[in-house]
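Notes to self after the Tuesday call (sharing in case useful).
The group wants a holo model before anyone commits to mutagenesis around the pocket. I volunteered. Ligand is thymidine-5'-diphosphate. Logging inputs and output together so the record is complete.
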Amino acid sequence: MKLLVTGGAGFIGSNFIYYWLKNHPDDDIVNLDNLTYAGNLENLRSIQNNPHYRFIKGDICNVDDVTAAMHAVDVVVHFAAESHVDRSILSPSIFVMSNVVGTQTLLDAALKQKVKRFHHISTDEVYGTLRLDTREKFSENSPYNPRSPYSATKAASDHLVRAYHITYGLPVTITNCSNNFGPFQFPEKLIPLAITNLLEGKSVPMYGRGDQVRDWLYVEDHCRAIDVVINKGEVGETYCVGGQHEELNNLDVVKKIIGLLGKKESKIKYVKDRPGHDVRYAMDWTKIHMKLGWKPKYDFDKWLEKTVEWFQSNQEWWKRVRSGEYQEYYQTLYAGR
Ligand code: NAD
Ligand code: TYD
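Result:
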């Protein structure tokens, strides 16, 4: 089987490529990525000479790039996107281009190629926000209510994917997952930002009171969920994917990281809240569990510790990533807070 993975040089995409080659060693993977600030071929260095893997530098918004990458493809696994909420607040246009126009360009090419499956990676953020004082969770039946430019463009892409199934019969599946963490995550997101700032002796910016709740999912559990959906999922269906742990707010998470690194809680710096900040996300993953037998197997505390260890042992990786464009972004985002 030949897979086209888009955005394979990013955080989840690169973890997915490793996962897939290990678990399906006879399959071929083409990775189409235009290497934005978040795309990093260093993530894939150890498989760059694997005969089952090929990288194409190209933009999912570019018809020629996408047509070339789609050659003889059976399954598309679509990760490529602008993925960071704070950046979407600073500059929404690129989110509309990559997340909406890019997805539609890929869908057209997948239709022409008559792929057996187009699997789209989406997010719990399309469902909006939950209240802190409830045990309510998002499920496949929750209404769409995106509240940031990022989640609005992901919602639009989900609608396009479903529309291509209903209108043209493209065999699609969608997973909407919660916040991932693990190796190779770009240090603009909370967990890697906190770890790397603390390792450099810097403070950790905490938005508002730090009482917002996210549903943390170890990246390999996510990759396994995608595998199960591609292999056993029903065409046209959506599956919600989340982690399994007691609800933790951002302050709890950062305090755990501080504990693991032996730092002081005075390193937490409360800063002005993110505009339109979603208060709480929680995923009900009953459907993927009951229908396809998936459940998360990685415990948050143990895998947070492993993630902290990974960042401790891969300082060259994140120090390179945190130079250049990152510095400018960090100054712009955090300076006024
Ligand atoms: P990331 O930002 O780490 O990586 C995105 C990758 O896509 C990068 O390699 C980038 O170069 C590539 N890319 C961006 N625009 C492109 C374009 N126009 N053409 C080709 N390549 C392009 O993102 P991630 O955290 O790995 O997220 C992957 C997917 O999972 C995204 O669709 C995101 O919305 C979704 N998701 C992520 C999370 C999370 O916690 N990280 C949670 C839910 C859903
Ligand atoms: P983030 O990792 O950006 O993911 P998302 O916004 O997609 O959930 O943020 C996770 C949570 O951490 C979110 O509630 C915002 C908060 N946060 C901070 O408090 N400080 C920070 O510097 C960052 C990046 C995030």
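Two things stood out.
The chain has one domain: 2-181+217-244+277-299+327-334.
Residues 6-7, 9-13, 33-36, 38-39, 59-61, 79-83, 98, 102, 121, 123, 154, 177, 179-180, 186 surround nicotinamide-adenine-dinucleotide (ligand 1) (CB under 6 Å).
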